[in-house]
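Heat-inducible transcription repressor HrcA: structure, please.
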Amino acid sequence: MGAVDERKRAILCAVVDEYIRTGEPVGSKAVLSCIGMNVSSATIRNDMAFLERAGLLEQPHTSAGRVPTYQGYRYYIDHLMCPKPLSAKEKRMIDELLSHNDATADAIVENAITVMSEMTNLAVVARSSAPSFSVITRVEVIPAGRRVYALLMITSSGTIKNKICRIAFDLTNEQIAFFEQFINDNLTGLNLDAVTPERLTELAVALGSYMVSLSPLLNAVYELSEEISHTQVHLHGEQNLLTSAMLRADEVVQLLAHKNELEALLSGAFDGISVVFGQEDESFAVTNSSMILSPFKAGGQRVASFGVIGPVRVDYAQVIPHIKYITDSVNRLLEAAMEPDDEDGKGRSF
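Here you go.
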């Protein structure tokens, strides 16, 4: 791209901006009125032809103007786009929507996804990254009726899950206390993926005389670990895709039906904001669409990954600053939610 000089860059920027605004191929006269340079229409046409040969523009019809290619959009986003800063009012509104005292990490991320969809009028797909770093911080057993017990598991990411266990006989307070101490001694601080069937067998043997009575609870610990570790892809604001005139409804329906296939794409969002265009990835084959990817992070670890999905003609200069502001705000909230603030070193959200 070294041959794309300042004038050609200005022309490309004008074509992308105008096409995003109008949805119509952009001709030389429209470009000339945008760039404010003292050059002829012929010069503009020659430069547009160069940009077409470079793969940054294309001409839908022989007599029509040009439109950006996916490569042109990417060059625009990386090098030419002038981000539109958020107003003080927009920042206050986002801050108010995101602020929830004593929220867990899961709740913070879930709320942020909703806010992002509402602020951008686009769909947002997200996956939790709990398996990569989350550890067990506490396990509790709560009597919930005759021979019925609720097993509660809390992780370092703020996830709180419970499972109802039905046991053939009532447990004594001593048995419950023993089990809680046993599990917390053996599993607290371990990654969720360390709770394997082999580890479960070792723990069952170590229960000794309590093995028969406490095995149902031990199995529930394993099942909860699996449930928390199992990645699920969540989508919010899908109506924004279904009602978009710029997207094919049949392809959107297929995307919604197979949203879990986006997991691999989302797992690639490690640092900063990146953009994937429809049909560039087989799991995201929606014509004329784009996905803006970014992670939520805390303590240097990825807590979740998300993608904002919309038409390829989305106003990137407006949407990306919103995504960045929300992401930075959520990262700070996640850091605060995971900070230890008591003598036991447990985060305040637990």
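Notes: The radius of gyration is 26 Å.
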